[in-house]
Amino acid sequence: MKLKSGDKVLVKDSVVKGTVSKVMKNSVLVLDEDGFELAYQSDQLILVNIEQSEMSKFSDINNKMLRQKALFVEHNKKSAKKSKQEKYGVVMEVDLHIEKLVKSASGMSNGDILNKQLDTAQHKVDFAIKNRIPKIVFIHGVGEGVLKEGLYSIFNRYSLRYEEASYQRYGLGATEVTF
Hints:
- The protein is built from 7 helices and 9 strands, in the order βββββαααβααβαβαβ.
- By secondary structure, the protein is of the alpha+beta class.
- It folds into 2 domains: 8-49; 53-178, Ribosomal Protein S8, Chain: A, domain 1 (2-Layer Sandwich).
- It has a 5-stranded antiparallel sheet, with no helix packed on it.
- Helix 5 (110-130) packs parallel to helix 6.
- The relative contact order is 0.13.
């Protein structure tokens, strides 16, 4: 992979993301979101060529087929949104990716992250019940399934109906809950 100054990148096995500021012979300088310039080997970096929120829906971003599906979803996003709203009314969407819930996840353990995600889901379910919102879509991504099982436990406690959300609209890793 050939990186150049200005490319958006993610650091493998980390929550760090930023912009390439300089490419050197043995390393790449990345300006992270907090304004720090850090050096990495190029094989530690992942070039971001589609919107991060779309890419994070998939566990293997290097898989060509999944990238094509993500691009297809992005391309059809506007028409799917209109038809879904016209057909079902308001649908509350909750993205449980940790980068959407906290400013920085650095220093958080996997357990802390999972607890934050499940607490957020619990609050959103309570909010939807209180405000009579008919549907929520929880975007949890594809991974080992720990978060998904935690969500299912919450839904079962309330005896809620749930199913995989529309693939055309959300790709992989989303669950629709009906109240």
